[in-house]
Structures
1.
Amino acid sequence: MNTFHHIGIFCKNLEFGKAEISKFANIISFSNEIIDEEIGVRIIFANDAQGIKYELVSAYGKNSPVLGVFSRDKDYLNHVAYCTNSFDKEIVKLRNVGFVPLGAPKKAKAFEGARVIFFLTSLGFIIELVELNKK
């Protein structure tokens, strides 16, 4: 079974993202910045008083996948993330129901080396699948 983890929001600058999210969400804590050279992102997690986790994501490097969002000037509210103990089975399941992978699984520093993969759903939004208990 998959469990909700976070809402991913792309921002051109993490400090700007922190200031903006604090305007509408009752943020009680921010993580330290995580730089993931492999994926090409800078990340800060924000936690609100209701227990919702937000992932603020900005570009790191010239090949960052975040840059495409900025060039289209849309999709800043980018993805909803779920964790799973059955990572490989869930990938097969999501492919079988018609979701399109947006790349191969990659190890993510934000999750201590656990694998992540992104899928475009038939509803037009992106799901991030995060592997649990694998490093």
2.
Amino acid sequence: MALTKIQAESMNLADTYAFTGTVSGLVGSLSYNGGTTLGNLRIQAGTATLPSSSTDTGSTYGTGARYYSTVAVTLSGFASTPTVYAQGSTSYHETVVSDAYSVSASSATFMAHSSRSAGVQDHTIFYLAIGKAS
């Protein structure tokens, strides 16, 4: 494999550089192609944005869960249903993002709920899926 050297002055390290392709030859045969597979272990991390609208349940589920919204993501490379975790990025302290409540080997759906509609609209959810590689 050819080695390419880049002068530091020719790159703006504040820029974001997109990567396409596959990296191989890493420790433990680790590779990256939209997720990471290490032996029989598959790890996929990503983000999803909650929609700009939410559902109002009134007082049915209490004030802390009055508004909710959902977002689905696509998963790939899993042989069976992985374990999925989620974390929300919002300044609304009462907003809660559930771990995925509808999960298969190819998708996961997350629900966020809050006492205020703005707490569950247009916010980023970070997710991590871990399971058996296909």
3.
Amino acid sequence: MAKRGLDTVGKIARGLLDLFHYSDEPLEVIDPAKQLTNPNIRGQERELTYGSYLTPYGQEPKVVLQEYPNQSYFGNETYNPETGLGDFVHHTQQPSDVFYDLSEDIDKFFPIALEEIKDLSSKYGKELDPQTIMNLARSRAMKYAKEFGFLGLSNRKFRPNVYTSFEKIIPKDVSKADGSVGGLIEYLKKAGE
């Protein structure tokens, strides 16, 4: 127990977060390019991935605004997984300062993105509904966070236990819902036997 307590103090001092990704099978790499491949996921994340045509129907060339950057989703130790996320839990540790907090938006990505989306809508004479404008602006703000070199996103005010990653992540450990845990290499060796 004392060792575990010292490990926890060490992680806090280094600013490391314990993060967990859920899937239907053990993964060697958690790849953001595979986002939304779980058919059980329904939510705002799915809506944000949809693009919007800026040019009128049938006009060529088509101009489609699709800003949402690929992301993998993680929960911290207080996250209560949604039904259908999968029986395999992939654990990683990441520094807390590599996630851009959307709720603080210290670099003001969202207001900049919102104005740009409105300007593009006006430029192409496309009237977008308010929800589409907000979704496109959120997606563009996320893209800016990625372009500025952040590993991923957090939203400490509204979803404090959820994080995303723009980059591939190799899990430190994989566990199954039945509680069996092991290092990824050992686990995959056993799975391949």
4.
Amino acid sequence: MTTDSKLPSGKLTKAKIEGIRRMAHKNMRKIMKKLDFKGFDYGNRLVGCCPIPHGDGKTPNDNAQAFSWDFTRQMWQCFSNGCHRTSGSDIFALIQCARKVGFKDALQWILDVVEKDIDDVKELDKEEAERMEQVIRKRSQLVKHKRMEDDLMRHLRPSDYFKKRGFSDDVIKEFGCGGEWHKTGTYGENRAIVPVYDPVDGFLIAFTCRLLDDSLIETWRPKWCHALNFAEIRKKSADRTDEERFHASSVLYNLHRAKDHMGESKTIFLVEGPGDVMRMWEAGIKNVVAVLGTGFGKHHRTLLHKVGCSRIVCVLDSDEPGQKAKKSVERVCGEYFTFSNVELESGRDPGDHDPAQLRLIFKEYL
């Protein structure tokens, strides 16, 4: 690893570093050419052989689909060895891996390629530099969390529960709910597993689990249960410590996706469970979240405020708990959001409807 960087430490301020990052992004094609990148330029991304030495550590990967640089997100991925997952997915990590150098040497290498000196780099103002750094950090965290999620989901065995309920393969893949818990004799036995993500950042934070057979429902074994990790799925909720319990009041299921589909009206549809969200999604209504039960509180209201929601359309169940929940939502949110209520005919949940029926029912909102 090279250690003779010419960059003086005193000049490497955060603003300078982010200025070098921006300069690298603007000269990405030049940088990739210098790395002997072999592939194709599709305008918004580069796809080809990974420029990072693989295998014996000397020869680059020869898979023409192994590497991708996304100009929109300013991130790279290695689909062959998953290099980005262990090293980071930003431009600096790419140079460090490809050139096998340290951080300062990677910065110097970029400056040499673009034929600039550190003094030529225009500093970003402090606020912009911090914002850019936070964006890059968040993107890198998402990549690492995705790897952790993939590792966790390998513990599950394939499940056809949602397939039997008529959900499409696309929506099952989108929501990652194609697995079930396989440990016999545990509380999670015979349950389909649905990942739950952070409402804002999109990290995997917990699981909600649905019994495969309604005849197994008992007082101690409800239809749905929640858990922070697979170890907790083995235990009854009553046997867990408070630190081990996942509190559904802390999230709105699917908010991390729904917040990008609110439209100009900033509308969010509120339903009861993951199945309702998935069916609405199939109907083309993607600005939909679930309360993971019937409880709606001030924390949920805060989450909706945080993503900029200004209108709530309540589509909770028509049974007694659902009606009680609707009143709770209106009481908590009535003064803060434009509120309306839609009650489906025949007392069925959104998850029990055909997507075409839902499109007809909610056509005025589409």
